[in-house]
Amino acid sequence: MQRNLKLLIAYDGTEFHGWQTQPGMRTVQEELTKALERVLRHPVTLAGASRTDAGVHARRQVASLRTEAAIPTNNLQRAVSCRLPPDIALVRVVEAAPQFHATRSARGKLYRYALYNSERRPAEGLAARYAWHFWHPLDFDAMRAAAAPLLGTHDFAGFANQGQPRETTIRTLRSIAIRRHYELVHIEVEGDSFLYNQVRIIVGTLIEIGRGHWPVERTAAILNARDRSLAGPTAPAHGLTLEWVRYDPAELP
């Protein structure tokens, strides 16, 4: 009998060329697929919820696959885990509904961007691999005010780089939260789905506003113009982490 499995995966993206398999490149999908095929003993087609870019991390990436192997999920999780490299963790394997698909069934995602906002280097806080060191003082109230117009459903063409093909640049953002704890700043962006580099461009734009280069009205102007050249730089990949993916409970155990 064919089974549909849902996998929860975490990884340090530093040494990976992103999630998606690419010829001649080390990717998370390729490493995980190889380990699964060694245990299941058949070719595996692995679908991922998010095609994270090179250098981007994940705390709860989701993948799905179909198999007729009868290995219990707990045993499969252990057998695959011991065949994975140290920078990937297979957190959990569960049975999913027949119609579940990690990519198509996703209803929302949350990304967290980490900044180390201090004149001192992030190595002091053991954050060098996972946070963008930005030493200029930032006006967080201005950044929050600038983020407000981005909430809701808009055409985000001005906040996307050319890359992955897309039918539309219209997306919905549910929340943008900016929190600081001493030197570490987290910018959390939740939405239904995201365009190529969208979160990193939003972060880069908010930084320019926070450091006083642009007024808070800049984000609304970028939305209206739909012009990528008006937005800020693409923030470095190593500060970004996929925190979780949301699904319809009916499609889960």
Plain-language structure description:
- The model has no long low-confidence stretch (mean pLDDT 95).
- This protein has two domains: 3-104, Alpha-Beta Plaits, CATH 3.30.70; 107-244, Alpha-Beta Plaits (2-Layer Sandwich), CATH 3.30.70.660.
- Strands 1, 2, 3, 4, 5, 6, 7, 8, 9 and 10 form a ten-stranded mixed beta sheet that branches.
- It is an alpha+beta fold and 253 residues long.
- It is globular, with a radius of gyration of 19 Å.
- It contains five helices and ten strands, in the order βαββαβββαβββααβ.
- A hairpin with a 2-residue loop joins β8 and β9.
- It has helices spanning 28-40, 73-81, 140-147, 198-210, 218-225, and strands spanning 3-11, 47-48, 57-67, 88-95, 106-116, 132-133, 152-155, 170-181, 184-191, 240-247.
What key attributes describe this structure?
2 domains; 10-stranded mixed sheet; alpha+beta; 253 residues; 30% strand; Alpha-Beta Plaits; 10 strands
